[in-house]
Amino acid sequence: MSKEKKQSFMGGAAILASAVVIVKLIGAVYKVPLNNILGEVGKTYFDTAYLIYNFLNIVATAGLPLAISKLTSQAHTQGRENEKRKIFRTAIWLFFGLGVAGSLLMFFGADQLAAFEANPMAAQAIRALAPAVFCVCLLA
Predict the structure, then answer these.
(1) Distance CA 19, CA 105 (A)
(2) Model pLDDT, residue 112
(3) Count of Cβ atoms closer than 10 Å to residue 104 Cβ
């Protein structure tokens, strides 16, 4: 590996590591005021909704972005631009479909999901997080 490629790789890795640290800090900063605003009861509703949201996000995005990235980079290095565009279009539609399915499941199945988690009062919180599944899937 040439010196320029090593420097480029290290620079990219440093940027990604910095982004992860910033995201973790933001996540820690919002939790304290959120707990104070919601209170004990509201926090249980939020935790139930967030658990379901997190599960659907993992199902929809775990491994797929990495696989698509690998396929795209292979097509790019081999000069197959049409295949690269086809992979990208397929990925967009795949994540769109997963996002819509996850959001609809959370919105219309909120009562059942909340009952499954033994917290029937969390249904509104689950519905409130439903659009986030769609957004995260498209961002993936």
Answers:
(1) 31
(2) 92
(3) 13
